[in-house]
Design goal:
single chain, alpha/beta, Rossmann fold, six-stranded mixed beta sheet, 7 helices, 10 strands
Length: about 220
Amino acid sequence: MISFINVNCTFGKKAGVKNVNFSVNSGEFIFLTGPSGAGKSTILRLIYMDLFPEKGKVIIRNYNSNNIHDREIPYLRRKVGMVFQDFRLLPDRNVYQNVALSLYVSHYKTSEIKKRVYRVLNQVGLGHRVHYRPSELSGGEQQRVAIARALVKEPVVILADEPTGNLDPRVSIDLMSLLNKINKKGTAIIVATHNYSLIQRIPGARLIQIDEGEIVNIT
């Protein structure tokens, strides 16, 4: 489903990744681990095609980084959900509006948007918070909204970049349990984290270790 083939990518004076080769199958749960600056976020941005390799190629289903057209990138991103450490919710919109925004932009029918939004909010345990603003939610609840926003597009993969970095340990465990449940329903999950204790919470997940832009181990 996702393949990195001899990928090298740098941006500015900061090293990105070099000679990266790995693949992700449909429905897998993957942890990208390594110290800060190792290249974890770069790999996620390459999958999202926010960055492009100078050498090699990244393939996501039928999309190839070497020949994708600009007009195709929005369609690729409908298949890829993003979850960030800092939530990135719109403060002037309520929970429903934050989750629904990408569907409005993609011109879904109002009835379909409502059905999808309520389904994913119930799935993440926030069906009772639809009219709340982000400032009225806890950090854990805000991250659940971010997960619902990623999930509402019915993506083939969700990319989570240090999703528990701003949360306390108990809430972090709850969030990983939620991602595990989503994965069990068939959505591939790729989590970038340097918190090794979280990895133990997902038996059977695959581990890709990165250091200084290179993959040093895959288990």
